[in-house]
Specification:
Length: 172
């Protein structure tokens, strides 16, 4: 037995998508591009423009742009020093163990976060987006997501209370 099923559990935590190794490699490359390479390039482009006489626009400052460019170069050098095999360049940007724990495992997390009207990101939604698979949060908006989550949480509390009462009765 897998334990009790709670109200809305199947909706909030549908079966997880199982990505292929190829899909994992593509998602890691996408993550590296969107979260590492793009940021470094953006910093270096701003620095190049600054050195060619373009004034920084709000919220950027000359000092901030210079610091970001310096950090980008240091980060790039650190990553390139990790790169020891032409086939594993993405591994230099994105640690495989971390990616597995965060994003591949994230595909099986229960929906909780912005999709259920909580002020945080939902790891499952973020993972599904990174893998470019259909979002499994199929409800119509945050209000419905919140209702589903509230009913789910209330059902868990109800089961916990019932279990505690049973234990109290059996100890008498």
């Amino acid at each position: 037995m897998n334990g009790p099923k709670y109200k809305n559990e199947e909706i909030l935590n549908p079966p997880a998508y199982q990505p292929t190794e190829h899909e994992i490699k593509l998602a890691k490359a996408r993550y590296a591009m969107e979260n590492n390479i793009w940021e470094m390039m953006h910093s270096l482009i701003q620095y190049h423009e600054l050195n060619n006489g373009k004034e920084p626009s709000f919220p950027y400052t000359k000092e901030g742009i210079e610091n970001e460019a310096k950090n980008a170069i240091e980060k790039w050098n650190k990553i390139m020093n990790k790169w020891d095999n032409e086939d594993d360049v993405i591994e230099a940007f994105v640690n495989d163990e971390w990616f597995q724990k965060c994003y591949v495992s994230g595909l099986s997390e229960i929906h909780s976060g912005d999709c259920t009207a909580f002020p945080s990101s939902c790891q499952r939604c973020h993972s599904e987006e990174l893998f470019r698979i259909p979002n499994s949060a199929t409800w119509k908006g945050k209000h419905e997501g919140y209702r589903l989550w509230a009913e789910f949480s209330a059902d868990i509390d109800k089961h916990k209370k019932e279990e505690a009462e049973k234990k109290g009765e059996s100890n008498v």
